[in-house]
Amino acid sequence: MNTTAATRLTNWLLLGLMVAAASFGYLLRPNNWLGEQRAAFQMEEQIPRQFGDWRELPQNNTLIINPQLATQLKEIYTSTLSRIYVNSAGATVMLSIAYGTNQSRDLQVHRPEVCYSSQGFQIMSTEKSQLKLSDRSIPSMRLVAKMGARNEPITYWVRIGEKLVRGNLEQGLARVRYGLKGDIPDGLLFRVSSISDNSQSAFEAQNKFVQDLMASLPLDSKSYLLGADAL
Predict the structure, then answer these.
(1) The model's pTM
(2) Worst-scoring range by mean pLDDT, 95-104, 188-197, 215-224?
């Protein structure tokens, strides 16, 4: 076989491999949207404005800072909720929930330590924790973000599909596991924070807030926020 014929054969073989790889990749591409199988959840109506010892305060934009730009929120999330609550002792908790139907890499839920840093906050500490509910503990994250005189302890968790994940590695692994089954998971970020120089006291108030909120919700609402695997 002359050189020209060998080159032509090699090119055809490479083309064939590329077509086969593209076809194989297409067949393996996730196409089962798990979010479409989840019951509709209207956060404004289904997250109570008053429960336990907590009641909603009128919105104060000087308190709630969403560390993501409005354009990013529209691109990444299907629905969001931001509220401020206070209890009879005067403890204030800011609640933020963001839900997205598509957890591909480009549109995945953004973790607060990344978003706060991008908006000029300094992350003073971050740790994995277990948030105590009445009948279970749920994996969550705690961090303290600071900008000038503003000290903001934060508790949050991320749900990918039916799983709660902590950190970028767990989040990525959950997305890949779903993808290998042909599934595109939905995702949710649940965040509570407070403006306080006493981080430990703020974390305790946030834990109590989440306990009381979960106690007030029906099972389907808990599943939406926590995922079935945590129930």
Answers:
(1) 0.80
(2) 95-104
Strand partners, 50: 55
Give the SS3 label for residue 133: coil
- Per-residue tokens: 154: 């934060």
The two structure tokens encoding residue 73: 């929120």
42, exposed or middle or buried, with CB in 10 Å at 0-12, 13-18, 19+? exposed
* Pairing outcome for strands 32-33 and 183-184: parallel
Collect all residues with Cβ–Cβ distance below 8 Å to 199 and sequence separation of at least 6: 144, 151, 153
More confident call, 112 vs 142: 142
In the chain, domain spans:
1-30, 32-230
Higher-confidence residue of 172 and 141: namely 141
Residues pairing with 126 in the sheet: 143
Mean pLDDT lowest for which of 42-51, 74-83, 145-154?
74-83
Q: Rounded to a whole number, what is the distance in angstroms from the first to the last CA of the chain?
A: 67
Measured between alpha carbons, how far is residue 212 from residues 1, 25, 110, 215, 226 in Å? 79, 46, 26, 5, 15
